[in-house]
Amino acid sequence: MNENIIKRNELLAQKVIKGLASRNMTGYYAHDKEEALKIALSLIQEGSTVTMGGAMSAHEIGLVSALKEGSYDFIDRDEYEDKRAAMLAAYDADIFLSSANAMTEDGIIVNIDGNANRVSAIAQGPRKVLFIVGMNKICSDIDGAMKRARNVAATTNAQRFGLDTPCAKTGSCMNCKSPDTICCQFLITRFSKHPGRIEVILVNDNLGF
C-alpha cells in the first residue's frame, strides 16, 4: 500500500476512534489484517459464546477460522439445520461479530439488512458487538455513508447472492421493492447506551463490500 495512503488512514482512524469515544463506543486501529486478528482475539475471552451475521471482514482477517479452531463456543449458522435457531441464539451470545456497510468519520455506523437478524442483534441482545471495519468503508458524513451502504455494499451483496434486483443489473440502488431486495431494514448506530458494549477494529486494508 502507498505510504501516503497508510499515513492518511492512520490519521483518519484516530479521528474515527475519537468520534466513537464520544458516542460511548470503543475503537482500535490495526495496521494490517494480522494485527486486527490479534486485537480481536484479545477482546474475546476463551469460552465465550460467539456468533456473527455474515461479516465477510471477520473471515478476511482470519477471525472466524481462529474461533472455530480455538477454545470458543462459536455458533456457525451455516452449520445449523435450523437457521432460525442459530439466529435466535445470537441474542444471548457473549460476542456478536459484524462489519459495517459504512461508517462516518465521526463514528456513526450504518448497516442495511434483509432478514434483520444482523441489525437487530447489533441494536439489542448480545452482551458485546465487535465490528471489523476496513478503512475503505469510512465516509465523510452520514449522507455519504448511506449512499455507500446502498450503492456499494447492498448492490455488491445482491450480485454476490445472485438476487433478482434492479441494483444487481444496474450496479446502483434503484430504491426498489423487489421481493428479492435486501434493503429492508436500515440501522444507524449513533450512540451506545451501554459503555463497552460496542467495539470497532478499524483495519488498514480494503475489507468486505
Number of domains: 1
What is the 3D form?
A: globular
CATH top-level class: Alpha Beta
Strand order of the largest sheet: 1-10-7-4-2-3
CATH architecture assignment name: 3-Layer(aba) Sandwich
- CATH topology-level fold name: Rossmann fold
Looking at how many chains there are and whether they match, the oligomeric state comes to single chain
Please outline the major beta sheet: 6 strands, parallel
SS-derived structural category: alpha/beta
Percent of residues in helical segments? 25-40%
CATH superfamily: NagB/RpiA/CoA transferase-like
- The number of helical segments is 8
Helix and strand layout, with pairings?
Layout: H1 3-22, E1 26-30, H2 33-43, E2 49-52, H3 56-60, H4 63-69, E3 73-74, H5 83-89, E4 95-98, E5 102-104, E6 109-113, H6 117-123, E7 128-134, E8 138-139, H7 142-160, H8 166-170, E9 185-189, E10 198-203
Parallel strand pairs: 1-10, 2-3, 2-4, 4-7, 5-8, 7-10
Antiparallel strand pairs: 5-6, 6-9
Describe this structure in words.
This protein has 209 residues and is an alpha/beta fold. The protein has one domain: 3-Layer(aba) Sandwich (Rossmann fold), CATH 3.40.50. The protein is 39% helix and 21% strand. It is built from eight helices and ten strands. It has a six-stranded parallel sheet with strand order 1-10-7-4-2-3. A four-stranded mixed sheet has the order 8-5-6-9, with helices on both faces. Strand 5 and strand 6 form a beta hairpin. The radius of gyration is 16 Å and the shape is globular. It starts with a helix and ends in a 6-residue tail after the last strand. The mean pLDDT is 95.
